[in-house]
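Design request, tokens follow.
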């Protein structure tokens, strides 16, 4: 959870439960701090057959991969470079091709190179006229991915560190674990760590746009990808092409505000789930909170050599709230836990935490934390987190304590200073940007979409509301999907405030 949702929830939640280039040169933009690295003449991707991603199968023969070189430090545009990994599937109707469409599925820390091939069938209509392009942002997976600790240490932390400490000893261990994680990032990924923030990723996107040969950037961002898209629009408003932001991160919130938003959003989704199953939402929330207290006192057996503790149980409850299709799995997992077994909740938590059946963890959590802490200045103390508990417990008796403490643990002792309190996304002069918010979105509550549309500016942010459940609307609501397709394919901008149900 933390400041952002885990990446790919729009595409991956459903899956869960059912080459060298020329060196960089200065760009032509004279706007301070937003100069792109390289030019279309020097950055031409060498598209080759893709290798199999770690732990997975190679994409089909229609997919090609490449690498674009970008400055490690944009303050030194002719200095050391790093590679940004790309993957592409060409438009199926070449005669009507409109250009390239760049995707970011969120996180931060999600690998577009891995997610896009798995999710591409959901974008077949867009693929008819656009090349679909995914990328690993800097600090993620194949793009100098951040690594902070090994599998053994990661598993030990999930199993032994209480994320809702009740005693001085638990609090000390909780804060020490956050500091240890940051120290590991500095030790193993120190060179990239100061440069993985969203502003730099947005600058990379402009270089990718040039390398793809597009005059303007066509972009589809989900979850954290909406913050990245808003940042790009602020830096390069004149280069914004057709852009859709779905499952929108609130750009006016700092790190504590994001936690507050998520406490509200996950509790809202939980109550909608409880009401759907015929249970009084308030009574059901009290029942689940009581279950978590029992698990905190006595972790549940799981049929393995691992126990289900309270922190893993909370994560397991969060996971199926991302999609209404997964609510039956939550019912089965909660019923099993009430009967004294934590196996299903542990499986759900493992999926969220990126753990496979062999005990190997992916590094998305590493990248997510590094990017979030490079962005946000906030470094709440344990005392400040403790002071949030009454408010957060009122917002959500189930998720509030976890998210209140998370404000302090997430960037505890982080070795790199944050850039801002909240991102700047105002984009005067940009074309219309379609902002999609879902009323029951658990991870990025609906209110953030309205704020994003407002912050982008009058005539730029166009709000499309989806009355429904789940993290993201495209592909799950036919009205939203057809509206977005019409915008991308035909340039038809809906009326601001349109509602789909």
């Amino acid at each position: 959870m933390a400041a952002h949702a885990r990446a790919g929830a729009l595409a991956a939640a459903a899956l869960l439960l059912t080459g060298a280039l020329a060196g960089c040169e200065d760009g032509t933009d004279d706007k301070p701090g937003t100069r792109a690295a390289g030019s279309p003449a020097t950055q031409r991707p060498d598209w080759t057959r893709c290798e199999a991603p770690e732990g997975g199968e190679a994409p089909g023969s229609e997919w090609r991969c490449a690498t674009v070189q970008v400055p490690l430090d944009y303050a030194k545009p002719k200095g050391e470079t790093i590679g940004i990994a790309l993957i592409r599937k060409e438009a199926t109707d070449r005669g009507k091709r409109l250009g390239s469409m760049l995707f970011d599925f969120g996180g931060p820390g999600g690998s577009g190179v891995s997610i896009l091939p798995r999710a591409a069938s959901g974008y077949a209509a867009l693929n008819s006229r656009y090349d679909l392009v995914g990328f690993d942002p800097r600090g993620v997976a194949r793009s100098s991915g951040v690594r902070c600790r090994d599998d053994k240490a990661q598993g030990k932390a999930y199993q032994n560190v209480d994320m809702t400490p009740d005693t001085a000893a638990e609090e000390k261990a909780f804060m020490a674990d956050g500091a240890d994680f940051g120290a590991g990032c500095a030790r193993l990924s120190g060179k990239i760590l100061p440069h993985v923030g969203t502003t730099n990723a947005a600058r990379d996107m402009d270089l990718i746009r040039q390398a793809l040969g597009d005059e303007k950037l066509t972009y589809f961002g989900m979850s954290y990808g909406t913050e990245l898209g808003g940042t790009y629009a602020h830096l390069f408003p004149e280069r914004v092409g057709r852009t859709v932001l779905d499952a929108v991160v609130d750009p006016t919130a700092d790190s504590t505000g994001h936690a507050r938003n998520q406490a509200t959003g996950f509790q809202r989704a939980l109550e909608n789930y409880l009401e759907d199953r015929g249970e009084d939402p308030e009574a059901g929330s009290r029942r689940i909170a009581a279950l978590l207290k029992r698990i905190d006192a006595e972790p549940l057996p799981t049929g393995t050599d691992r126990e289900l503790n309270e922190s893993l149980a909370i994560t397991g409850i969060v996971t199926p709230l991302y999609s209404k299709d997964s609510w039956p799995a939550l019912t089965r997992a909660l019923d099993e836990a009430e009967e004294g077994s934590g196996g299903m909740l542990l499986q759900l938590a493992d999926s969220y935490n990126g753990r496979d059946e062999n005990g190997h963890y992916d590094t998305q959590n590493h990248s997510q934390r590094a990017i979030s802490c490079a962005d946000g200045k906030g470094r709440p103390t344990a005392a400040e987190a403790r002071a949030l508990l009454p408010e957060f417990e009122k917002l959500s008796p189930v998720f509030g304590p976890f998210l209140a403490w998370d404000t302090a643990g997430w960037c505890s002792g982080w070795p790199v200073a944050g850039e801002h309190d909240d991102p700047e996304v105002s984009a005067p002069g940009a074309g219309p940007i379609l902002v999609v918010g879902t009323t029951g979105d658990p991870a990025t509550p609906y209110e953030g979409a309205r704020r994003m549309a407002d912050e982008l500016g009058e005539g730029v942010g166009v709000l499309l509301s989806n009355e429904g459940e789940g993290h993201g609307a495209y592909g799950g609501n036919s009205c939203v999907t057809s509206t977005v397709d019409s915008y991308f394919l035909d340039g038809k901008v809906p009326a601001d405030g349109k509602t789909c149900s």
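Comment from the thread starter after seeing the answer: thanks! The first helix runs from residue 9 to 17.
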